[in-house]
Structure formats: C-alpha cells, structure tokens
Amino acid sequence: MTTDPIDFYGLETLLEDRDRELLHAVRDFGDKQVAPIINEHWTRATFPFELLPGLRDLGITGMPYTGYGCPGRSFLTDGMVAMELATADPSIATFNGVHGGLAMGSIYLCGSEEQKQRWLPQMARLETIGAFGLTEPRVGSGASRGLQTTARRVGDEWILDGQKKWIGNATFADLTVIWARDVEDEQVKGFVVEKDTPGFTTSKLEDKMALRVVQNALITLDDVKIPAKNKLAGANSFRDTAKVLLMTRAGVAWMAVGCARGAYRHALAYAKEREQFGRPIAGFQLVQDLLVRMLANTTASATLCARLSQLQDAGLAYDEHASLAKAFCTVRMRETVGYARELLGGNGILLEHNVGRYVADAEAIYSYEGTREMNTLIVGRSITGLSAFV
C-alpha cells in the first residue's frame, strides 16, 4: 500500500465505509467548489453564499446530533469533516463550526424538546442560519464571571441589554444565541434572538487580517425584548455554556489540523513543481526537512484529535481533554503554516499560491475558543489539582 503523503498514518481508515465516503465528498467539495472562488472572497472580505447549496447537499450540518433532521454521525466523523473543510479553507470550516457547532449545539444541549423541534430541523437544512454570542468588547477569557450583557425577566418577556463582539455569521444570521447575565441571580443564561428583533443591531467588523471570509460583527442589544419561550430551558449557568464549548473546542482543534494540512498540502505541491538549479526543489535536503516537519506536526495533531473524538464518542471527554488538544494543535498549526510560508519564499505572500491565506487565518484559530494560555490553565488545574485562575 502506498503511504498517503497527507494522511500519513491512515487515520481515515478508523472511519466506517460510509463515513469515509462522506469525508471524500467533503474533500471533493473543497477542491471543486471552494478552491476556485475562495481567494477572491478572501480579498473582498465577502461570504460565498453560493456555496451553501453544496454544503447543504453534503448533509454535514449538526453532524453528531441525533434526530431533528441531523446526521447522527460520530464525533470522530464530525472532527475529520471539520478538518477536511479547514484544509480547503479555514473560514468555511469556521462558518460551519459556528452554525452547526456553537449555535445548533446550544439548542441541542440546552434547549427544551419544543425548542429543538422548532429550530434544529431548519438549521440542519441550512434554511435558518445561526450565530453564537458570548464574547463581548471588554470580556473575552473572563466570560464565566464577568459578562456585562444583562437579562431581566419582565412578565412573559426577557429584556436583553449589552454588546457582543467577534460574533461570526451575525451579519446575516437568522437567529443568534445570546449569553447574558441574569440580574436577579447573577447566573449566565442563554437566549435565542431572532433576526430583525427591535433593538438588535449588527455592525460588521472591518479590516480583519484573518478569516476575512467569516462575517464577524459587533452586536448591540438595546432593550431587546424576546418571549420567555426563547430562553433556552437548560441554559441556566455558565456550566451549561461550558457543555457547548467542550464539544466545539474539540472541533476547533480539528480545524487547526486542517489549516495546517492545507498549508502543507499546497507547499508539497509547490515543492514538486517549482524548479531551481535544473530540478524540483522537493529534491533538496532543506526543503524535505521543512516538509517532514510539517507532516510530523499535522500527523501528531490529527492523532491526538482522533483519540479525543473517540473519548467524546465514549462519553469520557472532559474540559481538560478538549483544552489540551486546542492548545497543542493551534501551536503546531502556527508553526506549520510558518514552515509552508518559508518553503515558498517570496511566493508565500501571494494569494495565488494559497499558503499566505492559511498563514493569516491561523492567527484567528489560534485565539478563538480559548487562548493557549487559558486552555493551559484548564489542563494545569486538572493535572495538579490546583487552580491558577485569578
């Protein structure tokens, strides 16, 4: 058997045949539909809505959820699909992660049966797009204790006030899950705010250097009134928020692997085609050293993520497991895209060679869903039994 230069340890053979076929369909979607248009959208900082029918046809939205029109596949399959999407483009993977992971996950894990039936089927069909509002202009890592967005219960309504920042998909989302501090008991709770609700406004964040295709927004909530039925029934403290983040943080680790893989894949192809001194540069020792460093990073990271997904499927994954993967894989991703940029020399900064896009996008993946430092503290608390949080 010939060794795959990308999936060097053959991790996709861990999947059942139907899931492996799905993975290949996602790869084909990336090569044929994403690749031809993504650089133009990245340059213009626009979202490729023309890709949504293809994403819908893949049937990968809300991958690990059972029922409600969702695929009901394994976390391992879900993770590898996230990796494959990010290999094609990290922004498209992020869109899917925000919609299918954070937004749908909040409803699936924290919603009542009526709420799941109301929203999830149309979200699974990409007829309704979701966003997830946790981070605020002045509150990032301190969200568990310091949310400034407030919620007040008044009769049969909740009234939300505050701001959210860096909210992916928010400029065009049909509904946004907003996490706010209940002024009565000081607990973080989740609410679904539907598009065009009075007092709910979004402003696109301009001039980003990373994930330019993702439409991040500043959300302002000014006396936003929502019916009591839109308060997520099982979202009553930050512990409930954390259940969602545990699941999606693992997905971000997989996306980091995909971002690194994408840069490595393009660098490998370039090395085989680029000639200097009368032969392909892939035949030079220092170039092969860079390629092997990239391969080692992506293989180690993917192997770690595969085991994390197996723990998720067995119900044995905890916060510290997801945090270790997110911290490790994003560091290795950053290193890998740097190696790819180095291999391409000056061509590494040209979009036509793709690697520069991964270099830039890696900076966003490195930070969102918990910085390396915060994830390190979660793991550190687990292995020492001592909390080093402020």
UniProtKB/TrEMBL annotation:
GO MF terms here are:
acyl-CoA dehydrogenase activity; flavin adenine dinucleotide binding
Which Gene Ontology terms describe the biological processes this protein takes part in? fatty acid beta-oxidation
Q: Which residues form the Acyl-CoA oxidase/dehydrogenase middle domain?
A: 131-224
**Span of domain Acyl-CoA dehydrogenase/oxidase N-terminal:** 18-126
| SUPFAM superfamilies xrefs | Acyl-CoA dehydrogenase C-terminal domain-like, Acyl-CoA dehydrogenase NM domain-like
- Which Pfam families does its entry note? Acyl-CoA_dh_1 (PF00441), Acyl-CoA_dh_M (PF02770), Acyl-CoA_dh_N (PF02771)
What family does the Swiss-Prot or TrEMBL record give for this protein?
Answer: Belongs to the acyl-CoA dehydrogenase family.
Q: What is this protein called?
A: Acyl-CoA dehydrogenase
Which source organism? Kribbella capetownensis
